[in-house]
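Inverse folding, one chain.
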């Protein structure tokens, strides 16, 4: 990896601070940018006098900054990423890549034509547990995958510029697409708007895949406790990834169904903890971005990956707004679904 690579971080709030910390620890933090001047000055004190600015144009014009990391509010992702690409920068955008599918496709095409790196912050794909699950599925350890269930629940952080679907679900959608290696044929979503009439606080999204797998994604910021869990049920073994755990983060359950007198009987087995390397996913994600800048390789979570996730978010959003119980197709390549009207 090129030791001279420097990145600039735009947006140093809730999640941006984690990216600032990781790039600083990696010795690649060139500058940070935020509209909150007191926040910038505090971070400058914490990180050995790192360069600060409150103008993204000023940051994008710096010749010594090769990579731009965008952790601003989601509504700004498209415009900031587009401007950074126009200025010849390699770009890492926190999820979601944009709020519209056509904007995400535009950014992906821009990066491809300009020969620039465009990476999306789908953090779970860099998690050692997800990487291990991918290998378990690939090697047939779980058998034929039957269904997947994910839950990402918490009390807060409440948002008004995006609903819970767009705030929480991209993590699980990207992980499920990666693990299954296919896109859903139909998507249906249901939810509830409890704090704001225009913003969903709780959603449940169901995805059906051509392979026969069904996935359920439950997200909420109005939950009494924090939960981040992914369950994969195969016909040989079941896997539970609980990111709130430490010692038992990934557990395999070789439960079996036995048929006795033509009736299915569940036979429980003891869970087996899977050993995982003690690696921090944000650190791995940041390292991957730097490696892509250095080698010009395509990121694991590139623009196309971001577009695929957005198509499902878009289909889920339309299903939510339609208030219909049936599932809608999300297989159109543009992700711009035309739902029938409800009379």
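Residues assigned per position:
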């Amino acid at each position: 990896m090129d030791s001279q690579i420097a990145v600039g971080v735009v947006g140093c709030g809730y999640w941006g601070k984690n990216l600032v910390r990781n790039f600083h620890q990696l010795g690649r933090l060139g500058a940070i940018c935020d509209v909150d001047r007191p926040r910038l000055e505090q971070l400058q004190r914490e990180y050995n006098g790192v360069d600060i600015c409150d103008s993204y144009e000023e940051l994008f014009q710096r010749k010594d900054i090769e990579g731009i990391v965008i952790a601003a509010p989601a509504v700004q992702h498209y415009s900031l990423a587009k401007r950074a690409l126009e200025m010849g920068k390699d770009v890492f955008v926190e999820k979601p890549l944009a709020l519209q599918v056509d904007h995400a496709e535009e950014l992906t095409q821009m990066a491809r034509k300009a020969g620039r790196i465009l990476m999306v912050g789908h953090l779970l794909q860099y998690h050692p547990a997800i990487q291990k699950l991918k290998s378990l599925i690939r090697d047939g350890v779980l058998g034929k995958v039957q269904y997947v269930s994910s839950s990402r629940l918490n009390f807060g952080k409440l948002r008004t510029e995006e609903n819970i679907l767009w705030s929480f679900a991209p993590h699980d959608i990207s992980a499920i697409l990666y693990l299954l290696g296919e896109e859903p044929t139909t998507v249906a979503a249901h939810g509830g708007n409890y704090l704001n009439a225009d913003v969903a606080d709780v959603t449940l999204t169901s995805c059906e895949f051509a392979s026969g797998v069904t996935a359920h994604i439950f997200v909420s910021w109005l939950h009494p406790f924090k939960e981040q869990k992914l369950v994969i049920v195969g016909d040989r073994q079941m896997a539970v990834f609980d990111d709130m755990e430490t010692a038992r983060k990934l557990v395999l359950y070789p439960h079996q169904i036995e048929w006795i007198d033509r009736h299915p009987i569940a036979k429980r087995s003891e869970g087996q903890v899977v050993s995982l390397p003690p690696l921090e996913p944000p650190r791995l994600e940041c390292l991957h971005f730097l490696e892509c800048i250095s080698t010009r390789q395509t990121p694991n979570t590139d623009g196309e990956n971001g577009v695929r996730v957005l198509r499902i978010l878009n289909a889920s959003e339309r299903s939510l707004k339609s208030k219909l119980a049936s599932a809608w197709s999300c297989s159109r390549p543009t992700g711009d679904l035309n739902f029938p009207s409800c009379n």
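DSSP finds nine helices and 17 strands in the chain. Confidence is low (pLDDT under 50) at residues 324-328, 333-343.
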